[in-house]
Amino acid sequence: MIPKSGGDYAYIHEAFGPLPAFLYLWVALVIIMPTGNTVIALTFANYILQPLFPNCEQPPDIPVRLIAAAVIFFLTWVNCTNVKWATKVQDVFTAAKVLALVIIIVAGIYHLATGNLENYQKPFDNTNWDLAAFATAFYQGLFSFAGWNYLNFVVEELKNPYRNLPRAIMISMPLVTVVYFLANVAYFAVLTQSEILSSSAVAVSFGNRMLGVMTWTMPFFVACSTFGSLNGGIFASSRLFFVGARQGHLPQILALINIKNYTPVPSLVFLGIMTVFMLITSDMQVLINYISFTESLFILLSIAALLWLRIKEPNRHRPIKVWIGFPILFFTICLFLVVLPIVQRPIELGVAIGIISIGIPVYFFAIHREEKSKWFMKFMERAMYVSQMLCISLPEEKQD
């Protein structure tokens, strides 16, 4: 129905107008995208370093951050240089991710089949049944599924999106859900709850217990997995900022395209800088809570946009149709995830709400006002010129 890149941004803009769409773009710029990529980069670094520090609960903080920064810079360079390289990286490392998960599942099933059922005797002992805690736990779990909507960010680059987009969703979502469920069954069969909570690299702890001389394969495969995930995050996130700039909601610098490689180099470089900046902290749980609340809030808004358009424009052409019950159920779940954690995580959520609120005056000062101050316009013109020279980039050509 909305064949535009940008994912949630495109839907919110279509249904509710420029201000809510800009606020999504604002928090995606400041929190969601760079923070999500930072968490994945930190996970990669932890798994790379864990075998070098076998007697430590987690590797030293400084090396972890340095390796995370290095992989962010490298993958930003790959995405700037060649789209085909980026897609090849994605294909190869996604295969490595699936292979690692298959190894975990097979080892876990073998462990259960040999009668090791003690971890499942009382699986819900000491469970916190508070609803707000449930929502916070969902935040941590749902982060594993981050990226399920990345294809919507690059719709304009898809071949035959009306056929390939639903096909990709129908194949990938059930497959990912089943594989992740079985992987967690394996984890809990082999490791106790306390071991899982205390480990910064659960798959490594699992491999140490189950794989013997092949223990080294687990950090290698999981590092490959996170490497591929980070590559996909950088690829999709940069397109969101590119679309927002093209729409006039971000500086036009971010809408420039490299004339040689046809990649949005300024957008990729800006995203890389923001992602590295987020390495000021390596506390992944806090970072995930920041992401998950804001992401759930705007996913709630984008699903509300689809429901609103169903009411407002019932006769609009919809090449891809689903039963109305699915978005209503999803809307209800997102509402639960937005409202209940306010009691459980007031500080993190307060910071997130504060950042969203700051976006309102930014919008009216820098976007909504027709007459911009002369110094601001002169600064942006100069910045545009410098970016075009440094990145060898030009604005996208408009087709009539």
Short summary:
The protein is 70% helix and 2% strand.
Q: Helix coverage percent of residues?
A: over 70%
Quickly give the structural class.
Answer: mainly alpha
Which parts are unreliable, with pLDDT below 50 for 5 consecutive residues or more? none
Number of strands: 2
Question: Radius of gyration, rounded?
Answer: 22 Å
* Beta fraction: under 5%
**Order of strands in the sheet with most strands:** 1-2
Instruction: Give the overall shape.
Output: globular
User: In this structure, how is the largest beta sheet organized?
Assistant: 2 strands, antiparallel
Distance between the termini: 21 Å
How many helical stretches?
A: 15
Rounded average pLDDT: 79
Order of helices and strands, N to C?
HHHHHHHHHEHHHHHHE
Question: How would you portray this structure in words?
Answer:
The protein is mainly α. It is 70% helix and 2% strand. The protein has 15 helices and two strands. The protein has helices at residues 8-16, 18-49, 61-81, 83-113, 131-142, 161-190, 193-198, 202-210, 217-246, 265-277, 284-312, 325-339, 341-344, 346-368, 374-391, and strands at 256-258, 393-395. It has a two-stranded antiparallel sheet with strand order 1-2. α2 packs across α14. The model has no long low-confidence stretch (mean pLDDT 79).
